[in-house]
Automatic annotation (TrEMBL):
Compartment(s): Endomembrane system; Golgi apparatus, Golgi stack membrane
Protein name, entry field: Fucosyltransferase
UniProt EC number: 2.4.1.-
Molecular function GO terms recorded: alpha-(1->3)-fucosyltransferase activity
Classification via InterPro entries: Glyco_tran_10_C (IPR055270), Glyco_trans_10 (IPR001503), GT10-like_C_sf (IPR038577)
Length: 293
């Protein structure tokens, strides 16, 4: 593959410039001390996507408003594969909030430079280091100096990939076992008869997530949401005190355009950002939008 477009050991792609984690501010400081190829819409020295990534995404002549119509995730995964490191700073620094920002570079063979869930080690597949944890450094400058040392030391760099040759961690294995059991339960229920299968996929759902506990909310988004998102007719997320951070988690899974039958949406004004507005625009089927201040 032609990687002549690479100018730095680190790749960063970000389009939410006002995330609660303040990642844009962090990255501006980090980039004073180490080169980063910036392909997003935030920060400085933004680069154009390489031609082969545009082809993978199928995004030529398309805008962010049309993001649901092209292979954004596939392009990001392919781009991460070409870099030693990938910036993986979450929207929110919340327990159990771990998004594709961590999983994609791990899958691609790039080392995540991570800042996010305080309990991220409970979710990692590795027994030793497989990411660079930004919490371990007092300043972005300290982090940059360490990243430089890893990039220059082949043995040290490869140690972050050693986990790929070993069994996954005990905690991660329990997670895999848990999802395997869920899959069996769902499959057993789903195949009871054709009427049940039709019911769980076609019944309109009125979803109120105002006061759900954060742990249950995370589990719901991971396990149940993928199966029911197209059935959601009404979505209520407007309890600022209870769900201000978990709403960001909810929208990190799918764009609103993926909720093809959504007719009613309740939000807080604090939840509105450019990305969310972009995702609302194409919703011709949305009949009610309530924004509480």
């Amino acid at each position: 593959m032609n990687t002549s477009y690479i100018k730095a050991p680190i790749m960063w792609m970000n389009s939410n410039c006002k995330a609660k984690s303040r990642r844009t501010q962090y990255m501006k400081e980090l980039m004073k001390y180490i080169d980063v190829d910036n392909y997003g819409t935030c920060g400085e020295k933004i680069r154009q996507l390489p031609e082969h990534i545009v082809q993978i995404q199928g995004s030529r002549n398309r805008t962010l408003k049309q993001i649901a119509t092209y292979n954004w995730e596939g392009g990001k995964l392919a781009l991460s594969r070409d870099y030693l490191f990938t910036i993986s700073i979450e929207n929110s620094l919340t327990y159990d909030y771990i998004s594709e920002k961590l999983w994609q570079p791990l899958a691609a063979g790039s080392i995540p430079i991570y800042l996010g869930a305080p309990n991220v080690y409970d979710w990692l597949p590795c027994r030793a280091d497989c990411m660079i944890d930004l919490r371990k450094f007092k300043t972005p400058k300290d982090a940059a100096m360490f990243i430089r040392s890893v990039a220059k030391n082949k043995t040290l760099y490869e140690s972050y990939h050693q986990w790929r040759k070993e069994p996954v961690s005990d905690k991660f294995q329990k997670i895999l076992d848990y999802y395997a059991r869920l899959d069996k339960i769902f499959y057993s229920s789903d195949t009871l008869n054709s009427h049940f299968s039709h019911l769980i996929r076609n019944t309109p759902i009125y979803l109120n997530l105002q006061n759900i506990h954060e742990t249950k909310f995370s589990r719901f988004c991971c396990e149940i949401l993928p199966e029911i998102k197209q059935n959601i007719s009404s979505l209520h997320l407007s309890n600022k005190d209870a769900c201000d951070q978990t709403n960001a988690f909810f929208f990190s899974f799918y764009l609103l355009a993926d909720y093809s039958h959504l007719q009613s949406l309740d939000l807080n004004s604090s939840q509105i950002d450019d990305e969310l507005i972009v995702s609302v625009l194409p919703l011709d089927h949305l009949q009610k939008l309530s924004i509480k201040t």
